[in-house]
């Protein structure tokens, strides 16, 4: 299983990647406009102009969709290439500051924390996807 993309690799016709891009952009926009509580998969699908079933095939929940929208499918490890421990720590601090300073992330964090607390599978997926590469 790929982190935060549990349905990737299923048989069938090729996925339209423009749907992913539209949906993720709309999700970030709606987080700022309406906040976590008012955000719904149905609202995202409507605003992105796609069927709700397309979202349900790609993301199993609102929390998974939001995590993917704000963090991406997998972490970008390029800033860590060739760096030492001090450089790695500096980048994590700087990158975290940039990430948590974004309005969409600020709106998502309270709801995501609750979703992660209540969903062991989602928490494990997030941990494996982001701590695993760092440990490697």
Describe the structure.
By secondary structure, the protein is mainly alpha-helical. Helix content is 70%, strand content 0%. It has seven helices and no strands. Helix 1 crosses helix 6 and helix 2 (41-48) packs across helix 3. The radius of gyration is 16 Å and the shape is globular.
**Tally the helices: what do you get?**
7
List segments where confidence is low: pLDDT < 50 over at least 5 consecutive residues.
Answer: 1-8
Distance between the termini: 18 Å
Q: Report mean pLDDT, rounded to a whole number.
A: 84
In which range does the helix fraction lie? 55-70%
Count all strands and give the number.
0
Shape annotation: globular
Structural class: mainly alpha
Beta-strand content bin: under 5%
| Radius of gyration based on Cα positions | 16 Å
Order of helices and strands: HHHHHHH
Q: Major sheet: size, sense and barrel closure?
A: none
Describe what is shown at a glance:
The protein has seven helices and no strands. The chain is mostly helical. Helix 1 packs across helix 2 and helix 1 crosses helix 4.
